[in-house]
Structures are given as C-alpha cells and as structure tokens.
Amino acid sequence: xxxxxxxLLWLLLPIxxxxxxxxxxxxxxxxxxxxxxxxxxxxxxxVDRGAQxxxxxxxxxxxxxxxxxxxxxDDIAPSRYEFAVQTIDALLEENLxxxxxxxxxxxxxxxxSPPTTDHQLISLALRSLRLDHxxxxxxxxxxxxxxxxxxxxxxxxxxxxxxxxxxxxELILNSIIQENRIHPIVLAMGTSRGSTIPKGxxxxxxxxxxxxxxxxxxxxxxxxxxxxxxxxxxxxxxxxAMAAELQEALDTLDAKKQQLSKMTRSYVELxxxxxxxxxxxxxxxxxxxxxYLLLLAVLFGSQAQASFFDLLKLDVAYExxxxxxxxxxxxxxxxxxxxxxxxxxxxxxxxxxxxxxxxAIKTYQTIRSTSPQIKQMLYYNIANAYTQLASYDKAKRxxxxxxxxxxxxxxRANLALIALLQEKKAAPGIAHPKSQNNAxxxxxNQEQETDKERxxxxxxxxxxxSGDSKQKQKNREKIKLIEAHQDKQEQPLSSKVYExxxxxxxxxxxxx
Length: 512
Fold this sequence. Notes:
Blueprint: E1 2-3, H1 12-20, H2 26-42, E2 45-58, E3 60-66, H3 80-94, E4 99-105, E5 109-116, H4 119-127, H5 141-149, E6 156-162, H6 170-179, E7 182-188, E8 195-196, E9 214-215, H7 220-226, E10 231-233, H8 239-252, E11 258-269, H9 272-286, H10 290-299, H11 301-322, H12 326-334, H13 341-353, H14 357-366, H15 372-388, H16 392-404, H17 409-423, H18 444-447, H19 451-454, H20 464-467, H21 470-475, H22 495-501
Parallel strand pairs: 3-4, 3-6, 6-7, 7-10
Antiparallel strand pairs: 1-2, 2-11, 4-5, 8-9
C-alpha cells in the first residue's frame, strides 16, 4: 500500500496532541477519531497494481524542427523558433494517444525523442534544447528526409517545421519522399520579404562582405508539399490556431492508425474505507435511533456498502472524466456493480474519447431511456462513432433517426457532410462531423433542459463545417497532461548532443 499525498499526514500530529489532552468524554474521543480518518482518506491510500499494458489506436507522427541559426529571425513573433516550439507544445496537447517522434535538424538531423506516447518527455526534450549552443547556420532537407526514411514506420507522417533548405534539386527530395512513403505537412517558418537575424549581443548577422544577411522563406518548401500530396501551411495569429490547423492536416491524411501498447500505472483506491468508517461513527454519535441504524446495517449491509462505494466510485469517475483522464474514468465505471443512465453515458463517452468506437457504440446501444432528448443524443453519438469508423451508411441512418426525434442543426450539418466524405475520404477542406459530449454526471431532467447545453465536442472536429461556432470554441476540450508536469525540472542536453548537431559546421558553403 502507498499514499498518494503523504504530506497531508502531518495533519495527524495536531490531532494526536488533541487526543492526548482530550477530556474523557466519549464524544470528544470519537470526534477526534473521525477527524483522523478524514485526514487519512484525504491522503489517498492506494494499492499499486503496477504498470499495465493498454492497447491504444494511434497515428505515427514525426515532428522535424529546424534549429538552424536563421530560425532566430523575428519576422514571425516572438521569433521563428519560439513560435515553432509553442506550436509543437500546443499540438502535443491536441494528441493524447499518438506516437510522436521529435527530430531537430540543421545540416545534420538528430533524434531528440524516439517514438513515444509520453508527450511529457517530448516537451522536456524540446524545452531543454538551447539555440545558443547551436552554431550551424545551414539546413539540409535531404539529410533530414534520409533520416526519416530510416525510421521503422511503414507510413511516415512528417510535420516539417522549417524556413527552407539549401537544396536546389527538387527531384532528389521528391524521390526520397515517394520511395519511403513519407506524407509531408510543411509549416513554413518565414516570409517572402525576409528578415534580419539577431545575434546574442544585440547586433545582426552579416556575411563576409559586411552586408546584413536577410533570411527568406525557401519556395522549394511549397513545391515539395504540392508535388507529394502534402499540406503547405503558413503561421497563424497564435500557436494554438496553428496547432489546430496542423491537426486538421493530420486528420486529412489517409493513413491507417495502429494498435500501440502503452504502459500505464493502475491503482486501487482505498480512501472509501476510512471515509465510510468516519461517516458511520459520526452517524452513530449524532443520529437518534442508533439501534435502528445498526439493524438496517445488518439487514442491508452488503447492498448498502456496495451502493455507497458505487457512489464514491462514480464521483471519482466523473472527476477523472472532467480532468480528461478517460482511461481512468473508463476503468472505474466498468467496475460499478449498479449501472445508472448517467454512468452508462459517461462510460460510452470515455470509450469514444479513447478512440474505442466499437465499444462506445455497443455501450450506447445498451442504454435504455424513455426521454426523446436522451434517445436523440444517443443516436447522434452513435452516428459520430460510425463516422469515425468510416461506416458512412450506418452513420447516415443514425443521424436520420436523431432528426426524426427533433430538429438538430449539428445532426443535419453532419448528415450533409457524410455524403461528401463518402465521395472522397478525408479530403482537404472537408470537415469531420461535430460531436456531442455528455459526461454522464447530469440528471435526466438536466439533460432535457436545453439542446445547446448538451452539445460540446467529444472529439475536436476540424475544418469549416464545425469550427466556426462560438460554442465549439467555448467547449473544445484541452488536454492538460503537459501542463500538469510543468513543475518538473528540465535537464539540459549534454555537450555531445550539440556536437552532433554542429557536426560539419566548418564545411558549410551556404550558411543561410
């Protein structure tokens, strides 16, 4: 057994002092015991079940970040490099399960983070990189693409963030991309007018003749994306908007998701035990008819205990769902002895969030309700799940059933999009249908209050079809996994890393 919040146990010291100097009345003794039990419950005692393997459906994504000297230019605020880093951080928040690889490159590429679903490690590796330790000015796209081609993925979804390379022969780059099944998404970090490059001392970079160096975006990048069915993006007003557009470009790729193994730690919560004992002691002291309470506990002890623990589990599951810990929410909801309408909806929504659409559909279909609003919501969510599975005929049928129960603008808009998706899967510019989210913690009457309160996004949709409403922007869910770990100390990269990045610096012929 272990304690998740051991620092709270220090509160037992003043309770122990009060217990020592307490009066001999039984009520004071029991009150202090109840207080101690509450402190123990708050400290979250658990039984660690260890690391367990979990299968997740994820895409393989390679992020290649240009860290050459020209990325210090400030024609994109605050600088090309800082905007790129902020965009990658925002993109990590958008991807919960995707297997992401991070590469930094100049004239030589360097693997900063191997393929991993632990995005906190990627963020730490990115933040520990220091530009002032990198001397290389040049950028080699050819070496980068060759490095990408060596990675052990069948299909390589490459997000290339750069202001351009030195290559002139476009055919060589195209052949590497096509032969190795690389799907490029280019984020062009620069402008056609160009910018000077500031140095650490406040001056600007100059060439050998003393002229200011102007760094402009290389037009080769746009041609590279166009010739290989890729996407060419330019920076938006914010890194969050840029990350959303990158995610949209990833969604349009006709790339198969893979079943990946992810190790997660699992715990058995023990805090309900001291909490239940504290509540029982309190009721025994302050409830009349104690004998009837004891008789009730004897007659219905097992059921009452099960219902009580189910109530506590349900509260923890809703809290986990609200904190976007969908795997933990699903695990807790699956262990409930008594399933309610709200818990079933929350369980189905958790499956949906985890990308387990078949299980979400089966769970939605087992839910029974006499409320037309609840039925309409269930049909709508089932249709969204079938859309994610590309079962467009079934999705159309359920959207139609949802509309038969009442007018729904989202369902009608999604039904129109299905026809387009059938013609061309995930075509650029075609949006994914909007989703509806019901966390399951609302009562059935609350579900009937208003349609707008019931609709948020089960999965962030992309494209113009569902991205323009203020409600979507308000309700769009953000994953906080990285922010939760920002207090961890960053470890600087070793000098050997920068030596590998700077390799070949003295041989550069065209340094920008």
